[in-house]
Design a protein that fits this description.
The protein is mainly α and 233 residues long. It contains 9 helices and no strands.
């Protein structure tokens, strides 16, 4: 999505959605064309929905399980993705060479994150792409090519009073909930986090005891801490 000439995002989203369907996606979401500017308006959300519906009912791609089956080009791309993925997996596993069989990639991923490898790869890819855009090697319609005078589009503006009303609703819930039950439920979440117990039943119990998402998250933060991304160059 681009903030410049946002209507172009309708075409981008259509291509992205079609590619996902051709690739056999199990779940599909289409962005509103104005999401680079704000939360989507009702009109933008409707166009995004209609995009899916046009693909489903007018394009014909749903008439067969695999419309691109047998395509040499697609198969060659698949092979290339697999080859590059295996290189990455081997590299990541190398961060934990002492891990037991089958755990190398999982343990290696933790070490790779801790050492900034993953963040560095993402940042390098983003930097390389931005350089290509800035140099005109990668064309982004409406951004670095085919630029025209900007036409403002209506965007979603959230009423600031909604925040105040939501705060009041949360306070009302806290005032009427069973405090003893709430405290016990949140404490159970924390205790489960400190052990090998399944967290999900405890989280559900906390929700039923009227614990907020923030309170449940705070209990987990107290055990696991909070990840803070390191800046890598």
């Amino acid at each position: 999505m681009t903030a410049q000439q946002p209507e172009n995002n309708i075409a981008r989203t259509t291509l992205q959605a079609l590619a996902a369907v051709l690739g056999g996606t199990q779940s599909l979401h289409t962005n509103g064309f104005d999401e680079a500017l704000a939360l989507p308006t009702e009109r933008a959300a409707r166009i995004a929905l209609r995009t899916q519906q046009v693909i489903a009912h007018e394009s014909g791609v749903v008439e067969t399980v695999d419309p691109l089956a047998g395509s040499y080009y697609v198969e060659s791309l698949t092979n290339e993705i697999e080859r590059r993925a295996r290189v990455y997996l081997a590299t990541i596993a190398g961060f934990a060479p002492a891990a037991r069989d089958g755990a190398g990639v999982g343990m290696g991923m933790l070490r790779a994150i801790e050492q900034g490898y993953v963040q560095r790869e993402i940042q390098n890819a983003a930097y390389a792409y931005q350089r290509a855009v800035d140099a005109g090697e990668a064309i982004v319609v409406g951004v670095n090519e085919f630029v025209s005078e900007e036409v403002a589009v209506p965007i979603q503006r959230i009423d600031e009073d909604l925040e105040r009303r939501q705060v009041e609703r949360v306070r009302a819930v806290r005032a009427r909930r069973d405090r003893a039950r709430w405290e016990a439920a949140v404490r159970a979440v924390e205790e489960a986090a400190r052990s090998e117990a399944n967290l999900m039943p405890r989280i559900l119990e906390a929700v039923e005891a009227m614990a907020t998402v923030g309170e449940i998250a705070d209990a987990l933060r107290g055990v696991f801490g909070e990840y803070r991304e390191s800046v890598v160059v």
